[in-house]
Write a structure and sequence with these properties.
By secondary structure, the protein is mainly beta. It is built from one helix and 22 strands.
Amino acid sequence: MTRTWLIALLAGAHLAAAHQADAQRRDREDRIARIDTTLTLARGGLVELEGPDGDMIVTGWDRDEVRVRATNNDGDLRLDATSSRIQLKSVGMGWSDVRYEVTVPTGTRLLLNGRSTEITVRGTRGEVEAHTQNGDIAIEDATSVTVNALNGDVELRTMDRVRVNLVAGDVRITGGRGAIEVVTVSGDVEMHGMTSRSVSAGTSSGEVFYEGAIDPSGRYELTSHSGNVVVRLPADVSAAVRLQTYSGEIESDFPIHLEGGATMGGHPRSFDFRIGNGGARITMTSFSGAVRLQRAGTSNRQED
């Protein structure tokens, strides 16, 4: 009898636990807010997305409408729309997890705000402004990009104007065409395949690398406090170059003919020289890292 009673008791406890788990699952599902809709938006309109934690994925297409798919696992979602502006935000309390998948007309302006949020934007061909506390940001094929973030890596491809302010994280830009301004406190800055005529990039702790065309009237300022600064130039470039370093090495694939009586010795070192007929202005500065001027097509490569 005792054994039968014990088996029945265990079976009852197991059944109660299963019922409790099922109730908890249904409760979680009941708390998940969902939106799946399509809205009309005028060309050049504004889409604002705001969420605490989770993912924001925005894609461009050639339609005059916005497709919104969104979930919030512990709160509510609010969607407000006019013909020129659509706003989607989480209104739940606490650290709810959201996922936004939004498709917008090309040329749409985007304003994206997140807390711990991964942001991905592709093919919108418009202005993008993104703000996060934590999370990586990847944007491709936009006209103008502004990023303000505390922690996370930023990867940008094929765009005109760029402005990035980052506390901790790496920045990688490929195919920049317009003015570039990048500041990160801790992290590397890499720029590849560039055709920009105005570049200002700096980091306190990390390396700065630039590779691409040099506009004859361009201005390029690259700075690191405790990392290498490397610029890879076309062989036929014409530029006025200033190299500055306190305790780092100086290397150049181009002949250095000092101007104004400058010398290579001593600390700090700062001197000017010309490649070709001058024209563009290039300033490379590192306090404790190496300063390297490379010629494209040689065996030189960026070093760690």
